[in-house]
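User: I'm putting together a small comparison set for a docking exercise, and I want a reference complex before I start. The sequence is below, and the ligand is heme C. Could you produce the 3D structure with the ligand included, as structure tokens?
Assistant: Of course. I'll restate your input first, then give the structure tokens for the complex.
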Amino acid sequence: MNYRVVSAFAAAAVFLVLAGTASAEGTFEGRKKCYNCHKSQGESWDKTLHAKAMESLKPNTRKEAKLKAKLDPKKDYTKDKDCVGCHVTGWGQEGGYLVEEPEKFLIGVGCESCHGAGSAYRKIHRKAGEAFEKSQKTTPREKLVEADQDFEFVEKCNACHLNYEGSPWKGAKKPYTPFTPAVDKKYAFDFEKAVRNNKALHEHFKLAGTFTGDPMPKFHEEFQKDAKPPVKADSGGED
Ligand code: HEC
Ligand code: HEC
Ligand code: HEC
Ligand code: HEC
């Protein structure tokens, strides 16, 4: 083989290795890409408590709640590492929010906080969407799981909502949430109820059926039954 052929092979091999790594492990990127293709969920999420979670860390907000939890309502907690982690996206993980370098698309409890770090699975969404549009070809959800998309949800919610001392959740470790059922019963976390709370979660929009099979959350069909039609610009966006 001459030199140019060998180096072309080497380049292809490097490309394959890199591409392989990229699809195996998702990193956090922020919600901008998701918005390009999921405008309906994005606009609905904008109105939720999760979207505004950082606001609650600012001085002179939620005064009563803070006093009750023995926090200082005048204090600015927006850079406090004992607080920020649960009020942003991807804290402590690759590509996630950093106090030193705040990225605006990672502020608040964003898409990737529940659906998983998106750099790998969003590429499958694009390809699968194109294939479905062209020839109605469907893609198994298992491919998305391999690319780190999450369909369980409950562990993700627990990591923020049940992270306090004496919690029934086994994974609890510092820093803890100050808002526990001991402070007020209303902070007790009931997943089945919470996942249907439309002040905190986005509304649901009808899927065309690009992805099929398990894993499918048991509330998937319930949510799809009452889902609204998505706004037109939803598919075919740039990734
Ligand atoms: C990264 C941490 C994080 C994750 C993950 C998370 N939440 Fe939250 N959640 C919060 C924070 C912080 C608030 C408070 C927002 C505010 O009011 O400032 C909140 C608020 C809520 C509320 C509103 C409570 C009220 O006051 O009425 C509900 C309901 C809720 N979350 C449900 C869920 C569910 C269900 C999941 C999983 C599918 C989930 N959350 C995942 C951090 C998180
Ligand atoms: C382990 C995750 C976690 C940490 C750490 C955390 N929070 Fe939160 N925070 C939450 C969750 C979950 C909620 C939503 C509780 C609910 O409404 O059920 C919340 C809600 C709040 C609220 C709104 C409460 C209300 O009733 O209006 C404020 C204010 C707040 N947090 C401030 C803070 C401050 C200040 C700190 C640091 C001292 C902090 N949080 C640390 C998870 C956390
Ligand atoms: C607090 C958790 C949470 C956050 C944050 C969140 N989602 Fe979801 N999302 C869900 C749950 C739960 C479902 C229902 C899953 C099912 O029915 O299979 C869902 C469903 C979806 C669906 C399927 C169609 C539908 O509307 O039900 C899309 C698309 C979606 N989310 C995109 C997004 C995007 C984009 C963002 C950010 C702007 C986002 N999600 C933020 C929890 C969340
Ligand atoms: C290039 C466009 C594109 C991007 C970027 C994109 N998606 Fe998707 N996504 C799609 C398409 C197309 C579908 C299939 C929709 C259907 O069947 O109607 C889909 C489906 C989904 C579903 C439903 C999966 C199921 O259970 O059927 C969720 C949840 C979702 N996307 C979340 C996200 C999140 C979160 C991001 C950002 C990290 C994201 N998407 C980025 C195009 C995209």
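The pocket of heme C (ligand 4) is lined by residues 33-34, 36-38, 111-112, 115, 118, 122, 125-126, 129, 141, 207-211, 235, 237, 239 (CB under 6 Å). Confidence is low (pLDDT under 50) at residues 5-23.
User: Thanks, that's exactly what I needed.
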